[in-house]
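Good day; I would like, with your permission, to put a structural problem before you. A protein sequence and the structure tokens that stand for its backbone fold form the material at issue. I would ask you to consider whether the tokens describe a fold that such a sequence might reasonably adopt. I set the record out below, with my sincere thanks for your time.
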Amino acid sequence: MWIDAHNHLQAPLLAETLPILTSLPMEAAVVNGTTEADWPHVQELAAEYPWIRPAFGLHPWFLARRTANWKKALDQFLSTPQSSLGEIGLDLWMKDPDRAAQEEIFRWQLTLAAERNIPATIHCLKAFGLLTKILRTNPLPACGFLLHAWSGSIEIARECLDMGAYFSFSGHFLHERKAARREVFRQLPLERLLVETDAPSMNLPDHLAKATLESGANHPANIVACYEHLARIRGMEVADLALAVRNNFHRLFQ
């Protein structure tokens, strides 16, 4: 049974894939909301599919879409059974980022995760210095947090490990130009690894994908390929990796 630690199955173009995932079978999939507009859909999916773990958060790409009541709404959605906080984070790679607003909103959401002691799933692009500064000075959930599709260095990753970080491997890192990312995941401690698709984003190389969509989007059934190739990178059997990931997932997501 497979566990996808990070995806966006609420995306309309993935609706047809849900029966396929049930038949894989999936043990769990963390479906991350990113705006107030998609939080209800994530909640509905979790009610329909017992293997879906809902996550609700305000993504740095969509801060301008927040309403005056977004904090109250987020707090209410986090009362959904088995929910976590995500996807949140920092992104200085995007065009014209509002760094001050990103930091303020990221800190508030991290504090909420700490108060509830639920894991936070964190997006970080080109903001690793700011990320470590915030992690060192902000309340954090005692259960830990997930740095999804980690693209930073092994040195920064080790700093984050000491603060409770887990890291999820993306099949996008199987592209030839992503060798440095694969090397980081070869070195990270096995007990802090998870696996993700980030479907419908972060496609695998075409020749490694096990499933495709006409739209060209990443199919969430590619979770199988992600496991297989991470096992090869780690020099271990897929079954052994799957058992370790299962233990890690349940430790973090309780």
Notes: The first strand starts at residue 2 and ends at 7. The chain is about 40% helix and 20% strand.
